[in-house]
Structure formats: structure tokens, C-alpha cells
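**Protein of interest**
===
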Amino acid sequence: MGKKHEKAILVGVAVGRTKIVVAQEHLNELHRLAETAEAEVVASFMQRLPSYNASTLIGEGKVAEIAEKAKELEVDLVIFDEDLSGSQIKNLEALLPGIKVLDRTGIILDIFARHAKTAESRIMVEIAQMEYTMPRLTRAWTHLCRQVGGIGTRGPGETQLEVDRRSIRTRIQALKKKLKKIEQAREMQADRREEAFHIAIVGYTNAGKSTLTNRLTGAGVLVEDKLFATLDSTTRKLFIAPNKPVILSDTVGFIRKLPHHLVQAFRSTLGVVGTADCILEVLDCSAPDYMEHMDVTNHVLSTLVEEKIPRIRVFNKSDAATPARLEEIHTNHPGSPVISALENTGLDALKQQLIALEIDWKKNREIEAREAQARAEAREAEEFLYSSL
């Protein structure tokens, strides 16, 4: 008998000027996140609000409606497409008795924890989980007020709360030290392979980066139709032409509304992007909101790499895109490779662009080497002149 999946209700909010269609696209993505976390989505709700409710995020009438549906469908958890504060989670769980309440970050962290395989990614996930948990610790101590209540119960709870927070901060510091050592080891590896042209593949989660890596290198990287199937960077050798090897690194995917502390925790894995000589930005051109995916990717990249690093924007999954979408891409992004990594089409044009960039890179390296040699010889001549006086 298979494992029983938890039943989930999803909740989205269109706040302020956010269009319902945009909020619905975000909710659709949350549906995929929930499925990746192995939840069974049985219902979803959307509410338009002028602003968020400080107590419950959504209106209490909508919470009552969700509670009724949850009871009818015997739901295990309710997942919100926005981040919730500790007090909001506490209030919602009081209004949804016996039901777990999660927010978008909580479900992403659950997926990261499932997919973390190496020591490095496990450390990064644990750091992110602890930084997420710390401001939400208050709800763990509400039992003190329920048991005794009123004056005289605040001290012990707050004291224990501070002990827990201090313990978490100490653990985070220790984990970050471990992560720093791993980063230093990666930098040493990067130094050792600096003679090879290094390409980093980046892009929105599930854009087909791992499929492209496998197609180009035969690396055998895990490929699943799930969000965040890849958490660890995978580095392989790629021959873009006979006797022309380069280094190719696959990386963790990006996603909208990715919390800042999650990006910070995964800077180690994303560090390969900062040391790359070229970036392949992979986009799923069949996605209805691919332009937003592009914006999210550019925003994250702006915090990681210098603008001067050459970038090739690759439109993948052409086999699943409509003719109108393909025409739109050819018009708006002339020269960008349009490929299908799945069906192995368009890769020759991509390799030609990589060859041209590798040739430019090699020429620049030679120029830099000659300039460095000239500076060294000038210093030696100057030192000899002074020593002979």
C-alpha cells in the first residue's frame, strides 16, 4: 500500500493592484510546489484584498469558509502563497483547529530538505530552516499562558524562548563556519581549473537546465518534472568541439518570492556562477509567464555576478511552445538559441556561440598574460637599475 499523501488547501491573495490573473499564476506555481512536496491538493481559494490582514493575512470570513471546506474534505494542511508571521500562523491554527498551516517559504524549505543529498546542501537547508524558524518560535510557548494564564507566567516562557533563540543562533554560526570551509575548498578547485573556460547554467526552476546538462555532457544529472529537483551544483567536462573541452556547472533553480535568507543560504552553491566565464540563462519558452521567469532570474543574477560576464539566453522546450510564442521570441530576442534539450534540437547553434565566446576568452587571457609579463619585466628592469646605482 502506497504512502498516504496529506490533503492540502491552497490560499492565494491578490492584494492592492495585483491582477487576479497574476495571483492565479502564482497560485498555480504553489500547486506545483505542493505536489513536489507530495501533498494532494483538494481545493484552492483566492481573495482580493486592498491590504493584508495583520491578524490572519486574509479576511476572517474567508478563513471561516476555508475551515468549513477543510472539515468537509478532511484536510490535513492549508498552504498560503505568502509568507506568514508567527502570530498569523498561531491565529490561523486557532481558527483551523487540528490543521497545519504553512506558508510559501515553509513548503519550499520542506522540498529543499527532501532533495538535499550532499553535506553542503544539507547544511544550507538547515541554516535556512533555522533562520525561518527563529522569528516564529513564540507560538511554541503559548501553552504556558493556557496552563496558568495572566500575570506571573511571562517570565519563564520568555526566558526559555531566549534560550532557544540563543541556541539556534549558536547553531547557525557553527553551520556557517562549516559552509565557509566548503566554499574555500570550492574556490581552490576553481583556481586549479582556471585554465579551462567555465560555463554556468542558471535559470528558473524546472526550465530544463539538468536535461540540457545531460544532453551536452552525458553527465547523468537527476532529471525530474519537479521543482527544485537539483540543489547541488554539478560540474562536468563538455567538448564544444573536438579537442576543445570546457567546464559546465548546473545550479539550483530560481523561483519567484524566494526569501532573501534562502538566497543567502544557497550562495555557496550559487558561488560557481560568480566564478564562471560565461553564463547560460535557460528559460522555459513554453511557460505562459516566461517573461516573469526572466525577470526573477535577472534579479537574482544581479546579486551574484558582474554585468561584464558574457551571457547567452537560451530558450528551451521549443517542442512544447506554440508557433506564436516561437515567433514572439525570434522577434524580441534575435540571435538567442531556441532549443529543445529533450528532443536534441538547436544545440549546434548554441555550441557555435559557446565556441565564439571561448575563442574571445582565450584571446583576452593571452592579452592579460602578455600585459602581466610586461609589467613583471618592467619591475625587474627597474630593480636592476636601482641595484646598479
